[in-house]
Structures are given as C-alpha cells and as structure tokens.
Amino acid sequence: MKAFALNLTRDRDDALDLVQETYMRALSNQEKFHDGTNLKAWLLTIMKNIFINNYRKASKRNTVADASDNLYLLNAGVATAGNEAEKDFVMKDLLKAIQQLDAEYKRPFIMHYHGYKYEEIADAMKLPLGTVKSRIFFARKQMKDFLDKRGFERFQ
C-alpha cells in the first residue's frame, strides 16, 4: 500500500496521508466489500480514486481564467511586493488594545487567543466555565470599543 501511494504522490508525507485516507474510506465503506473479492485490489482502487479526486481538486484551485488580451500580464505571474506598513499599524493598535484590557479579562483573552479551550482556561485559572466565557466576551467588547474610538472599521 505504501509503495503504491509513494509511486502516486512522489512524497513520503503525502503517501502516508493517502494510505491513512484509504484505510479510513475502506472502513467506512466496508459493507460494500464482498467476500471472495480481492481485498488488495479493492484497497488499491480506493487509493487510486482518492488520489485522482485530490489531484483534480488541486488542479481546479490552481486554474486561472482570464479573458485579457494582454498575454504578457497573464503569463507574468505574481511579481509584486505587498506593502506591510498598514498591517504593522493595525497590529500595533491591536497590541495596544490588548494592553488596555482590565487585568481580569486580559489573561483569559490571551489564553483563548493562543488556542486554549474554555475548559482549559477555567482549569488553569481555577474559575467557573461561565466566568471564563463572560470574561472573554467582555474582553472582546472592550477591545472593540477601544478600536472603534480610534476609527477602525470592522473587517468582514
């Protein structure tokens, strides 16, 4: 299985992902396997179909349709450099807004921002779950008010 997947993907990590996806798909569709059928051929067919579907999805994502008459611009690719200045200003204001938070709201908000779940924050701070949720809610509200006073528009 791994050798066939490696032959298809030409990448070790992608091959391992493909093998795992094949096993998952086979387990979820095991009722479609009939006794007397070649199991290896069935699994390799599933693997090949998954690979083909993923390849088609990836190639559709990378397809650019342009009705432009200027073929130079179409084939030039992306050669422009982005301006990071605006992003830096926004980040500075966001950090300032976080620093302005009340102390009781700052720590749970920062922990939530770093990916901690509500329950983990509650355990770490030895607080009830509802208290953690409300503190994060009020921290967001304080930050929104702080940024609104500085003329920030909400990003959609």
Task: Summarize the structure in short.
The protein is mainly alpha-helical. It contains eight helices and no strands.
How does this model look, in words?
This protein has two domains: 2-60, Rna Polymerase Sigma Factor, Chain: A (Orthogonal Bundle); 85-149, Winged helix-like DNA-binding domain superfamily/Winged helix DNA-binding domain (Arc Repressor Mutant, subunit A), CATH 1.10.10. It has eight helices and no strands. The mean pLDDT is 82. The chain has 156 residues and is mainly α. The radius of gyration is 26 Å and the shape is elongated. It has helices spanning 2-9, 12-28, 39-61, 71-76, 85-99, 103-113, 118-125, 129-149.
Number of domains in the coordinates? Answer: 2
| Form type | elongated
The biggest sheet, with number of strands, parallel, antiparallel or mixed sense and barrel status, is:
none
Strand and helix order: HHHHHHHH
Q: What's the CATH class of the largest domain, please?
A: Mainly Alpha
Give the helix/strand class: mainly alpha
Taking the alpha carbons of the first and last residues, their distance comes to 45 Å
Q: What percent of residues are in strands?
A: under 5%
Number of helices: 8
Oligomer: single chain
Tell me, rounded to a whole number, the average pLDDT: 82
CATH fold name of the largest domain: Arc Repressor Mutant, subunit A
Low-pLDDT residue spans: none
**Rg, nearest Å:** 26 Å
Helix content: 55-70%
CATH architecture group name of the largest domain: Orthogonal Bundle
The CATH superfamily of the largest domain is Winged helix-like DNA-binding domain superfamily/Winged helix DNA-binding domain
DSSP strand count: 0
